[in-house]
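Lab intake sheet, docking and co-folding queue.

SAMPLE TYPE: protein with bound small molecule
LIGAND NAME: flavin-adenine dinucleotide
LIGAND FORMAT: SMILES
REQUESTED OUTPUT: full 3D complex as structure tokens
PRIORITY: normal
SUBMITTED BY: R.K., bench team

The fields below were copied directly from the construct record.
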Amino acid sequence: MQNLLETNVLIVGGGPAGASAALSLLKYSDLKVVIIEETNLESVKIGEQVNSSIFDLLNYMGIEKKSFSENNFIQGYSNTAAWGSERIMVRDSIFNTETESFQLNREEFDYMLLEKVSEKGGIIFPRTKCLKFEQIENDYWTVELKHETKGNFSVKAKYLIDATGRSGSVCRKIGVESKRHDELTAIGRFFYFNESDMIKQDIIIESIEDGWWYCASLPDRKMTLTFFSDAHIIKEKRLEKSENWNELLSKTKHIKHKISQASSGGKPWVKNAFSQVTDISLKKNFLAVGDAAASFDPISSMGIGFAISSACHAAKAIIDADLGHENTFQHYQENINMIYCQYLETKTFFYQKEQRWSDSAFWQKRINMQRISK
Ligand SMILES: Cc1cc2nc3c(=O)[nH]c(=O)nc-3n(C[C@H](O)[C@H](O)[C@H](O)COP(=O)(O)OP(=O)(O)OC[C@H]3O[C@@H](n4cnc5c(N)ncnc54)[C@H](O)[C@@H]3O)c2cc1C
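RESULT FIELD (auto-filled):
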């Protein structure tokens, strides 16, 4: 492998944010792009609900809906919640104004975006880890990398993008700080249905004393069932053990019935789901996109849409900066801060609708939260 590769933009992370930043750069400029991804691109992906504005974003990046297989997007027919009362009601779509929602096949979706990056001339290194980041005289970045089989090499780039998701691992390595607002954690399992089973294409949320459950049907007769709570509650209740997770599920009023005919796909998986915002303004030629820039409570279903839109804005900021425009990164960060501030307000308003468990640690933290002043 060549020891030093030069490019214009180095993107770390090949999820929807990293791929979208690359696609926008490749479509709207002549800048060269390299993506570093630590996995072999086959890992299981979590998070799937999007609204119809995703098609406008894909269109902006030059990707048509028909590039995806027919069952990549399944339409959500009903979106309901037992939140604030034990009665099931149509869920308020307060986080967005779009009414149409879709459930994605995330693995196919993420893979397809990367395939398009490669088709359009972007270079992708899967199974590659970042060892060291260095910025020369507050300008060019050099990153030392290690490919699983081909060994060590370096990439020199004028611009560096952190697209590593909630871990924000580039930010942490180069000393960029994030502000975290809660410790929400997800613990979920996938369930599978037979050909003969009728599965309704719906989404249902049910709040309980220690958090809330989320159940959604996915493409390919799959269903995701996830419990959201604070990390310390999940630890205290030892929910990583299937029997404890099942026991908690059995106490739900509605959700437990959703999987009565399904078979489970293994032990519960655990994912961070906290809300956090990052401030990149002190670093030159550096941007964070997607969850690395700002991450949202999955109840908002904002993650994937924001990952793509923030990446498109980041690409525009880089293209303009490269043309000599000033303060483009600062404007990008101001826009992220504004979106995040509005989101915190909406999130507080939404959680405050659940007043049944004012003594529970989980709800107390959320319902007693002051409304954010702008
Ligand atoms: C339980 C749960 C449910 C969710 N549900 C929804 C939902 O219904 N709708 C919605 O819109 N959003 C949802 N989200 C959020 C959504 O999944 C994320 O917002 C979205 O994946 C963010 O995309 P991203 O590209 O920023 O990060 P990611 O998708 O996390 O991608 C980051 C990529 O970077 C790679 N990477 C990480 N570190 C490194 C490194 N050091 N070097 C190289 N590569 C690295 C990872 O392997 C990964 O491929 C949910 C999240 C959770 C946890």
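REVIEWER NOTE: The first helix runs from residue 16 to 28.
SIGN-OFF: pending second check by T.M.
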